[in-house]
Amino acid sequence: MLLCVQRGLPHPSLCPSTSEATQAACVAQRKGVKGPSSLDPAVLSVFVPPFVMKEDSQLAGMNCMTLGKNRKRSFRKKRERPRVELGKGVPGGPRGPDPEDVSIPNGVDLLALPQLCFPGGLCVASEPREDCVHFLVLTDVCGNRTYGVVAQYYRPLHDEYCFYNGKTHWEASGLGGGAAGCFVPFAVCVVSRFPYYNALKDCLSCLLTHLKFCKDFEVDNHIKDFAAKLCLIPSPPPGPLHLIFNMKPLQIVFPSRADPESPLIDLDLHLPLLCFRPEKVLQILACLLTEQRVVFFSSSWALLTLVAECFMAYLHPLQWQHTFVPILSGQMLDFLMAPTSFLMGCHLDHFEEVSKEADGLILINIDNGNITYSNDEEVDVPDIPLLAAQTFIQRVQSLQLHHELDLAHLCTSTDVNEGRASRRAWQQQLNCQIQQMTLQLLVSIFREVKNHLNYEHRVFNSEEFLKTRALGDQQFYKQVLDTYMFHAFLKARLSRRMDAFAQMDLHTQSEEDRINGMLLSPRRPTIEKMASRKSSAPHAAHRRMVVSMPNLQDITVPELPPRNSSLRKIQTMECGSSRAVLDVPPKSTHTFKIPEIHFPLVAQCVQAFYADCVAQLSKAMGSLAPENSVLLARYFYLRGLVQLMQGHLLGALLDFQSLYKTDVRVFPADLVQTTVESLSAPERTQAERTPELRRLISEVMDRPVDTPKADDRVKNFELPKKHMQLDDFVKRVQESGIVKDAGVIHRLFEALTVGHQKQIDPETFKDFYNCWKEAEAEAQEVSLPLSVMEQLDKNECVYKLSRSVKTNRGVGKIAMTQKRLFLLTEGRPGYVEISTFRNIEDVRSTMATFLLLRIPTLKIKTASKKEVFEANLKTECDLWHLMVKEMWAGRKLADDHKDPQYVQQALTHILLMDAVVGTLQSPGAIYAASKLSYFDRMKNEMPMAVPKTTSETLKHKINPSAGETAPQAIDVLLYTPGHLDPAEKVEDAHPKLWCALNEGKVIVFDASSWTIHQHCFRVGTSRLNCMVMAEQSQVWVGSEDSVIYIINVHSMSCNKQLTDHRSSVTGLAVQDGVQATSTVYSCSADGTVLAWNASSLRVTGRFQVPGGGLSAIRLHGGRLWCCTGDSILVVNMNGSPCQELKIDGSFKETGTSFLGFQLMPEQEQLWAACAGYPDVYVWSLQDLAQPPQRIHLQDCSEINCMIRVKKQIWVGATGLSQGRLKGKIYVMDAERRTVEKELAAHADTVKTLCSAEDRYVLSGAGREEGKIAIWKVE
């Protein structure tokens, strides 16, 4: 959308009063006396596209050189709404709304626009003035913004160049020459849907070189020609491609957004850093984050908008939700009386007036960098959190803000466009650094918000979040948490949006945070954090005080330093690597030069322009390497737009369809739907005959028109006010953030309702919640001497601390970490180790006799010491007895199952026991707490150890469902080896494990440490069936929804989709041999097999396997082996059959189908299994007609999956183990055809297997367990 408006004084013959006022002003100017304050501007011309109509097609055969003239425009009266002159549609253009329906775009008020084009008033001058520009932001009632760039220029009021109908205009109006030597301002405003501030400023600068010296009756023609050219330039899609257009004498660059989520940046983001000190920038950001009433002032109208827009960019991805009017004219000052939050801008001349008349405003003077308050009343604006502010200031000071310093050693460029290009590249890099810097500031402020979110129920526990903030920062967070901006931010977090904030948070998180993402234990400070807390500034200590719930009024906390003084002192403080901006190099950009058009108002020339665009885009696409899909997608997008304008709808749809294979993020779904709906009957028929378009049309037309909007409300956690049954209690506990696992909450419910009706009253819940939070706060305040911390691992946390007790090893407090028990001795604090949980042999609660007293005593026997540890714990004894036994049992289960998750769950159990005892405070409290001794009871009820073979083969277990309310089944696993690649960071070059869960969820683990590398992201919404790696940079994922999704392993993004299958994709295979990974074969359930070029993503082969039911494919010997249910079919690469192995009468399982198969080339064997049966069949590849050898798997109910590893076949199954139905793995020797090992793998069925470089095998369990086991291959 583009609107071009000319404004100035109306024609004298149409408005005599204005003529007289102008003449009076001119005379006053010459005499040096004060004349009229200003004149009223009027709209002279309005130009709205389209500029070429269908009826102009009759002129297409005429010579372009003779068709440059257009109708002459006349001036309008001042308050008359001007008639809009529409352009004309292109012959054969796309069908859509009639051109007559086009009107002034929404949000553009032509009656108010003149005030904004001359915000300081329209004043004549006695001498020429410099041309100038300023910028507008126009907002409609729905909050949609349009952007304007205004260029003002002066023309002489009376000279030989000014003619109307062949006469000088003062002669025509009967006026004398009294106005000679006066110059009248005119303005041209371009309004666009996109904030192309620099680009449109350059365009208008080029236009003014023509307007200042043309005759008056030619002005409209020049402007209309200019507007017609601009409207032909498409807006580039998000990504690395910028457009260049020759406007003569300048090359104009129209930049694109970095990605679909980012704002379009076409301005210099360092302007506020030149106008304000870093401390002031932080103050302004604090005003915006707390949604104050902010007014910018400057003597430059241009700076008002540019600086305000820079601050909007600094807030990204947070968005200002309130009124945004960066320029107010003198007649609009009453807007500042609005009671709600706003950001507005005024000329510096109005500063005193606004300061005295309005209340509660924050006044920001751009010219001198000062911040004041209206009526000298200080507004309560809190500081940005101190640590974040310190880091930000250091990063600002490290920036190079002056381009001249970079140019000092270079020769002067003699080419103006070359110099501009160099400046633009420097600015782009600086903009990127500033965006990273401000984003890091926001992440450091709001990073820990995620720790207080419950995603399942969309709850934010603001009260607990505030308790974790430092005292000096609390006022800031209290105000921010109540803003609309923060509420929208919470919605995005709870929806797990992977926006710029989430990506920066992921890239900058510590290794400890990555590990904590795998664990479910309650939050406690680690020994490493305790040590850093002791050595940090005094302010850091106060951060912990605030979380203790008792009276804070009694604690004397020194005041934080004043706002400005402290922030300058941080230059001498050490903040480690935080001093510099995160080293994120700017993404490389490319440019495409739009062909020139000389007669944009001539249909034939416009069509020729479109043809040139298509030809040049096609040429550029042909020169691209196939793997440069990101740039290729932008060319497809642009060519599709141009073909739409040509009226080539089918060609446009084919280009848009290609975006699925190149970058689906820029797919214009609404535009495609509109195009499909406007197809004529013959075009629709032709489209239906094209497979690609048939799929595209069905997807577009099947989209639900009125999809009910998901409930994205954010709830604040509140304590319940009614009695709760089990289901409501589970929900409330999950919302509180205490526990997520539904099974644990069920046990908690049993504990809190022992001996009572099976419901929990609000008072009990409140007491339990307070007990939990008090224990959490006390643990945060634990401070250990350095001599003690040296004895502990850096990742250990103190979870429970007893009262001071007498023991046989001294007097002190017993401390419990996730690894050990130790005594913190009193007097001279010291460390006495009691035992690690792994070394405990026995735990007992007894009575020790002291004089006439019997004192409850805890006895702990360890393997490494003969002496039994005794502690007179008195009333705490029974609780500690339960807790130590539970941790002991959890440690044993963790060791037996090689699964650290058991320790984390045991920690949760013992802390819940503590809270239950504190809540009930009754004789039956210990019995109630024993309901949570889950692992101790499991150990006593099922004393059978993990089988020796299983224990020796099992290396480790990980849980992809950590943090979820219930386990999720593992559908597919894929291991990808690590390799150094120029496109990757070193830490990203580690091997990875890709795990597909339900509904298209994918989680990626770092296979070198088994920590989460990429938290859950979605690949469609259907079940995923298969995964394979291609080209070392792509992971192909076959889905039940018939789409192949391609994940980029460097960016961890899924922006490509292959939509050629018509049924669920069931198998993928990568070609081996010399051309490894160059061809990928995919199959679908309807029997279709496609061959793909892995680089270009083009289909190079297609055939149909008869019978359907195709479930898997393998490559061997230059042929494809296809599992089709009742047969295994061997076909050539062109699809012609060679051999077939069918389930026939020789099989006992005639009513079943093949589940899957594996080929053993060295042994010349084919191994297969049938669905629902416990037998494996082995054929000789030399003669498939011979009956197979049948191998029965003992204690097996059914086989689910199988893979080949070296000379072994690993079979995942469901079977009996220790009398229970579990997931089992059978390791079979291919040469002897016997079972070598029988592994008790999972508590649920084994759903999938994958190999890791033939050194390890990874197995995924069903939804009852939802874990991944890593097995050693021998």
From TrEMBL:
Q: Which UniProt keywords apply?
A: Cytoplasm, Guanine-nucleotide releasing factor, Phosphoprotein, Repeat, WD repeat
Q: Where in the cell is it found?
A: Cytoplasm
The segments labelled Disordered in the record are: 71-101
Q: Which GO terms describe its molecular function?
A: guanyl-nucleotide exchange factor activity
Is rRNA-binding among this UniProt entry's keywords? no
GO cellular component terms, A-Z: cytoplasmic vesicle
Gene3D superfamilies from the xrefs?
3.30.450.200, 3.40.50.11500, YVTN repeat-like/Quinoprotein amine dehydrogenase
Work out whether the entry's keyword set contains Repeat: yes
Single GO biological process annotation from the record: regulation of Rab protein signal transduction
* Domain named UDENN: residues: 68-500
Q: Where is the composition biased (Basic residues)?
A: 71-81
What is the protein's quaternary organization? Forms oligomers. Interacts with 6 of the 7 known isoforms of 14-3-3 proteins.
Protein name as catalogued: DENN domain-containing protein 3
Q: What is the lineage of its organism?
A: Eukaryota, Metazoa, Chordata, Craniata, Vertebrata
